[in-house]
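During the second year of the project, the team shifted from modelling isolated chains to modelling whole assemblies. The rationale, set out in the original proposal, was that interfaces cannot be judged from single-chain predictions alone. As a representative example for this report, we include one of the complexes processed in the last quarter. Its constituent sequences, exactly as entered into the pipeline, are reproduced here:
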Amino acid sequence: MANIIKKGILSKGLRLPENKISESIPIRKLAIPEKVLILLQQHFGEPCNPIVARGDKVKTGQIIADSEKLFSSPLHSTISGTVTSVTKTLNPFANNIVSAVEITGDGEDNWIDLKPEPGVKNICDKLNEIYSDCLDKTQGKPLDLNESKGNSGELKNLWDMLKKAIEEIPNEELIKRIKNAGIVGLGGATFPTHVKLATTKKIDTLILNGCECEPFITADHRIMLEYGWQVLAGAYIIFKVISPEFVYIAIEDNKRDAIALFAKLIEDSGLGQKFRVVSLKSRYPMGAEKILIKNVIGKKVPVGKLPMDIGVVVNNVGTSKAVFDSLSTGTPLVEKVVTVTGDVEKPQNFLVRIGTPVKDMLSCCGELNTGKTKIIMGGPMMGNAIADLSFPITKAVSCILLKHFENIQEGNCIRCGRCVNICPMNLMPLIYAAYAKNSKYEVLPDYHINTCIECGSCAYVCPAGIPIVAYIKTAKSVLVGYGK
Amino acid sequence: MENKKHNNEQEIKNKDAKNVAFNNINNSDINISSENKKMDISSDDKKTDKISESKKTEKPNKSSFIGKEALLISHSPHIWSGFSTSKIMYIFLISLIFPTASAIYFFGLKALWIIIASTASAVLTEFIIKKARKKKFVMDGSAMITGLLLALTLPPRTPIWMVVIGSVFSIAIAKEAFGGIGYNIFNPALAGRAFIAICFPVEMTSWYLPWDFSVDAVTSATPLSESFVQEGSKAALYKDMFFGNIGGSIGETSAFLLLLAFVFLVIFKIIDWKVPLIYIGTVAIFSLIWKEDVLFQVLAGGLIFGAIFMATDYVTTPVTSLGRAIFALGCGLITFVIRKFGAMPEGVCFSILIMNGFTPLIDRYVLPKPFGFIKEKSKAKAKS
Ligand code: SF4
Ligand code: SF4
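Output from the structure prediction step:
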């Protein structure tokens, strides 16, 4: 189709076994948890301060923590009930201690009064009707795209009305909505979205990241298939705010159905002039922001700079949907699609409330193939193994992976150069491992250790089984301690 | 005084840092026992009980699997290619079947004995040293490779005791004395060969023709030595050289089989195809410039063997692509210079050893440019 651009590989990439076993399983809602634990720092930037106290009654969607700072994003209660404690807990992601609010539910899920944008809402209902018919709910596959119900004239009309309704809302209003909805980058970086959108820099490219390059995870893939039009509409909102020249929807070519769907959606909506689907080769780490930008538009983000500095904004597809939801239904970011996969009997894609403990999700996946199992928050390449099943889901999590534990014997580095050849950031991983082993951390900044994105490619290919990323992380944290 | 204090502090910090690293890495696979797990959950339950009494009856078998088994944590990434050091070594070893076959085919049982003696003594030496140093002996195939490579570069009638000396030197001095696999500076097989070539120059330069198994066989000249007299047409000579029907070290003669091994290694992504190509190409180009017989220079001696199996050794060559290219270029240049101007007829062995010595230097200065890295010229200027 005309809207699809095919791209070759412009950076180093690693071929990984995909293992997307939950690919064709539709998203299911997980029952409302009895209790949630909401960490007060779920975003990149300043932590929030709680504005509720023990014993307070809260409703779903009510703001429970906020911060004055720019690099911050408010947090909402994700169930209705009572605040049972405001404590401190270990954040499995940053390995630090953060405050958290624990809410015990009343089992009713009472929402606050949502304030959807009236103009947008009506159109949404109609669009939803049409598009939900296009999806085979049991199989989880989109039906034949050309046979979609409702004639194309009506569709076009609806899209035009939607676009017009969005156009009429002033930018400040949109950004305020996004901020109040607590939307952050849902791909894992959790950069507050409103900060990205409020940039004063000239932006010429918007990229929607639908790569999902890590093995096993299928959350974004399911979002694209099941909420495709919401994602596109969300992209249109962001497009309206930052007015770039082009919008690229970047999808890896192992998700052909999603590529075809978006090509069709772009045609339906008449956005073909500015919007394009980019089909990328499936190589790890294609979804990493800097690598993605290089592959889509061929530009490199300089070290220590943000994509905005070269006129690019990247947003995850899930973020885009959340942006749209904050407008069409007025819901803040209280739930998230999370894949549970790996050594489980029934892999699932769940729509869960943020703050749900991991064990609640696992109990719905059938018998677990036990044995020596690791439970990993995130994908197999960058995720963190957790020690406690009561850890809550945060805005950064998109996968819970159960993986059999294999012990890899660490040998001597044989200087094979595989890690150097595979490193997407062009670094020298073997040097990091060698110096970190001898605790000579101080020389590592000279070898640009801070450029490392901890993608894990080097440790994956290392024949000697050296846990290079573990050494890098240790070195980085020691260096932070030294103030370097 | 202040300085001293500062130093002390630094030391303590360093120690701490070491501890951190140690903890992080060595204890990265923390095994949380099932008991702990159970405790965790029960304490969890208690908390909820305190908060709302009514919740007592709930929480059914949700945690059925939790508590039964241990929960493990480890660092990311959680998957591994499985392409381990020993796998690489064994694939490399398989590729050495080609030159080994040619050695036995052309030089008979004698060659076979050399190969067996060399390989066996290499493995044995490694085993004894590892035991003596109270380290674990891993049969990763690297000692076998060293032994086999050494054997293949020896003349067909090297006495067995000499082979053993070379092999023991390779492993004991050139490899283990430097700290074992990964730490040696010089290619062990070549170091062993150089050692016996220097100690026993006569035996190491007595060449015999293939299929000449008689007791009083005459030493012949290899194509590169000065006494080599060309007989017959050039085309026939090239053909013999290509298929290996010439005098020389037992494994080095057949260019054809060596090329098969090369293709095999490249297909399995064990070696960088550019290195042998640049090495041989450099020799060819210089031969062309000095108006030597290019084809002859390429096919003769141990050039192809050395370029494929020795110049691509991981441990003793640079790690970056560019560094490896520079390494190969240097090898080609030195090989040609030794052949053309040096006292020795063949320069492959020493050229690679010399470039091995330059490897740390190359690795120090040839670093890849990090992604998106821009040299801040203005700043550097302002500073100077
Ligand atoms: S983890 Fe860091 S050093 Fe290793 S490949 Fe990724 S970017 Fe390179
Ligand atoms: S991949 Fe492993 S063995 Fe090879 S050079 Fe890198 S650290 Fe060394």
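Chain A has 14 helices and 20 strands. The mean pLDDT of chain A is 87.
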